[in-house]
Amino acid sequence: MPSATHPGAELEIKLALPLSDPAGLARQLARLPALARRKPVHKRVDNIYYDTPDKALQAQRMALRLRRVGGDDAPQWLQTFKTSDSGDSALSLRGEWELPVPGPALVQAALQAAPPWQRLDPDGAVFGALQPCVRMPYESTAWTVRRRDGSAIEVALDIGQISCGQRSAPICELELELLAGAPAALFELARQIAQQIAVLPLAASKAQRGHALRDGTLDAPLRARPPQWGKDVSLRGMVQPLLGEMFAQFTANLNAVVHSDDPELVHQARVGWRRFRGALRLLRPAVPLHGLPAWQGLQPMQALLGALRDLDVASTQTLPGLQSAFVADDAARAAQWQAMEQAFQAATLLQRQALRRALQEPAVGAALLAITLWLADLARPQAWGEAQDMPGKTVRHWVSQRITRLHAQWKRALRDSSHAESQHRARILAKRLRYNIEALRPFLPARAQRWLQQATQVQAGVGAARDVLQAGVLARQLAVDQGLVEFLRGFAAGQAGAASALPGGV
């Protein structure tokens, strides 16, 4: 660990463990070839995190904690101050200042050795306002892996809980920290573990999750948060943050799906993945994608995610708006509608369970981790090979050309949108255009804003018709009363007719 007097940095990979049997994880890990001959170290850890009432540390992505290690007879206390990079990745590079302290009280003098703290609290006012806000007791089982190349990596399994007042949440995660050697050793060990143990990349630190629990936002859906671009950002400076934010939206919502039934999590996970794939398409001519990992291991999970989204949309959005039109104060029809709702609820429950089982498959985590590490590698100049960088002015011109080309492709699709299949293609292209314009708006001319509005309109109009049609398909699959199925078919036909009147002048 870095010392108290010298700033250091920790390079680590955080992985959530979505298994249904957390108690058996230590045994599973101990059987892995990389860990089988290493003696684990077990310890009881109790972390107490501090912040000001106005959340001064949280706002700066900083964390300050007191850690108690050991039993009541001989406890040890460590004070740790951490800063975080601005990324949204399971791979993190964090500044860290740590030292022993005599007891369960913060030591102000120790913080003055950290330049970030000096900038945050030059007059001591922040320190004076600090108070305990989150507590995290957990059991840690750690293995140290030393390799012939001189690298050393700590693998720590942490199982416990986060608590803040009356709120609590489980801790079940794996942290791999590079103690010595090159990052490649860390990446390789993570890949080996992910091939055999179900994992999900976890961007949020324990402190960040504790803050979210305090705020009541833990497991809340993560929506798009495009990076803020400077006018002179180069292509290499833009690509990794852009793709990283999109992929983080995907993985963060997947992590939350494990614990929450919120339908919006499923929606935002799919949005994140579509944004990521759409941006890859857009950037393909200029970005070295030859090393991009295959994601076949994600396809079964993606299919389950899509099927669950269809059920969620039908149950929570489409069908409630049609109930009164079908029932019309008829008791028999009301009973039919209630039976259909129950069938959809049962199917949704089964589909959500199937998705969670899929997230426990090692192939899913291995594919997600591979993409995470590929994204991290994009920050290295060596990853670009002989590809030339683009200065800011050239980037703006190139991005504008790519968006204009995508817009032209969408216009061609709109001209042939007289039937459901062609309308669906127009909708897909509208989504791709919308997501890319939203992410790259600072690089684009003013007319792109009009394109964004039109694409959003088409996406909504065609989407509404498609949603009713899909609800009818699902109702038929669930053996719902035939009269109800025909009602949904008829309504969908009317919606499709309205959707064919798509905007002109695009």
Features:
506 residues, alpha+beta, Hypothetical Protein Pfu-838710-001, CHAD domain, 2 domains, eight-stranded antiparallel β-barrel, 17 helices, 9 strands, globular, disordered N terminus
What does this protein structure show overall?
- The chain has 506 residues and is of the alpha+beta class.
- The protein folds into two domains: 8-218, Hypothetical Protein Pfu-838710-001; 250-499, CHAD domain (Alpha solenoid), CATH 1.40.20.
- It contains 17 helices and nine strands.
- Strands 1-5-4-3-2-6-7-8 form an eight-stranded antiparallel barrel.
- Strand 7 and strand 8 (167-180) form a beta hairpin.
- Helix 9 (263-283) packs across helix 15, helix 14 packs antiparallel against helix 15 (420-440) and helix 16 runs antiparallel to helix 17.
- 38% of the residues are buried.
